[in-house]
Design goal:
Elements (H helix, E strand, L loop, with lengths): L8 E5 L1 H14 L4 E2 L1 E2 L1 H5 L3 H11 L4 E3 L5 H5 L7 E3 L6 H10 L2 E4 L2 H9 L4 E7 L7 E2 L6 H4 L2 E6 L10 H16 L4 E3 L3 H4 L9 E2 L22 E13 L4 E2 L5 E2 L4 E6 L16 E4 L2 E6 L7 E4 L11 E4 L3 H8 L3 H6 L6 E4 L1
Parallel strand pairs: 1-20, 2-11, 3-4, 4-5, 5-6, 6-7, 7-8, 7-9, 9-10
Antiparallel strand pairs: 1-12, 12-15, 12-19, 13-14, 15-18, 16-17, 16-19, 17-18
The structure holds pyridoxal-5'-phosphate.
Length: 349
């Protein structure tokens, strides 16, 4: 096949801002080092852009969820610096861990036995201290198989680090109980929001994800974290519409006056969900261009009445400030990032 023509959707990743965010979170982690959650293709931004920038900033610990995510990360860093959060669920996972060098995160007694029976080696241990999702129940930390593990990171995960509730301290206390009961080299509890909860939550390693990529789960991070992801889309067509005419499926927007509108190549199949229908905007040179009507699978229409110079082929920026976009759509900041589809041309800014 010939070379592809240029994409009409761009996701620009500000790797300078990403590196600055990692440094800021590393500094906020005090004596602990900051690692990086790079699961789900670096929260949707692209592992090939995100991992080298984090590595060059000084990050030495990387977290993915699935075994299938190891190889693309290992293209850029030592496989032994990669932890696989879902752990060894079957014999093939264990074989893959040994062959690749990536560390399994053991989450249960059966996972521990599976790892040990195949020869074991350094691993991480996730203890569930109150999220009741994935991880060894506290009641099982005395199990003999757990006692035989060679634990690098002793981890737990906070359920509500973005809120000030008593569960945070309760989880921290149980994590300390687990630390007292087991042998381990490093300990880790805090995600992005948890870093702000203070030194007691830091251990030797923190595990930010969202805030590396510009997300702001707690107010305290607002002036420390810079935006990283920028979305741009090309105008495919410009048209004038008369009063009374509808725009898009089901005419959920109807013009009340003559309007000039532009159709851009961004739709819900790209992760720009119908939650944006009648909300949000795009911009061109600082001019605000409101979204009109329903978002389609591959297209969205915007009002370009205050930008009469715009033509087919011109690029618009999508207003995608994560806290504001989350408030407008009801989607979480995590969803707003990880939804972004593969029709975006991802590149460094
Ligand atoms: C995803 C994840 C993180 C990162 O959390 P953020 O809220 O994105 O900072 C940390 N630890 C574990 C176990 C995770 O699954």
């Amino acid at each position: 096949m010939p070379d592809k023509p240029p994409a009409t959707l761009r996701l620009r990743v500000d790797t300078g801002a990403l590196a600055a965010n990692w440094r800021a979170l590393d500094a906020l982690s005090g004596k602990a080092a900051a690692g990086a959650a790079v699961k789900a293709d670096g929260y949707g931004l692209g592992v090939d852009l995100v991992v080298p920038a984090l590595r060059d900033a000084g990050c030495r610990d990387f977290f993915v969820a699935h075994w299938s995510e190891v190889e693309p990360v290992a293209d850029h860093v030592d496989p032994q610096s990669i932890s696989v959060l879902h752990g060894p669920l079957g014999e093939e996972d264990v074989r893959y861990a040994h062959a690749s060098g990536a560390k399994p995160v053991v989450n249960s007694v059966p996972q521990a036995r599976r790892w040990l029976d195949a020869g074991g080696g350094p691993c991480d241990l996730m203890v569930d201290t109150g999220i009741n999702r994935l991880g060894l129940p506290m009641a099982e930390i005395g199990d003999e198989a757990i006692g035989r593990l060679d634990i690098d990171l002793l981890m737990s995960h906070l359920a509500s680090a973005d809120e000030d509730i008593a569960l945070n301290e309760a989880q921290c206390a149980r994590w300390n109980e687990a630390k007292a009961a087991l042998d381990w080299r490093r300990s880790s509890l805090a995600n992005s929001a948890g870093i702000v909860l203070g030194q007691a939550f830091h251990g030797e390693l923190t595990r930010p994800g969202l805030s590396l990529y510009g997300g702001i789960p707690r107010r305290e991070l607002a002036d420390r974290v810079r935006p990283v992801a920028m979305l741009e889309c090309a105008i495919m067509q410009v048209r004038d519409i008369a009063p009374g005419e509808g725009v898009g499926y089901n005419s959920v927007f109807v013009a009340e006056r003559p309007m000039r509108v532009a159709t851009v190549a961004l739709g819900y199949a790209d992760g720009f969900l119908r939650a944006w229908t009648g909300k949000g905007s795009m911009t061109s040179n600082g001019r605000n261009l409101p979204i009109l009507g329903r978002v389609s699978m591959d297209m969205t229409v915007v009002d370009i009445g205050n930008a009469a110079d715009l033509r087919e082929g011109d690029w618009l920026q999508v207003a995608y400030d994560l806290p504001e976009a989350s408030a407008a759509t009801g989607l979480s900041q995590y969803e707003l990032l990880t939804l972004l589809g593969d029709r975006f041309d991802r590149a460094k800014r």
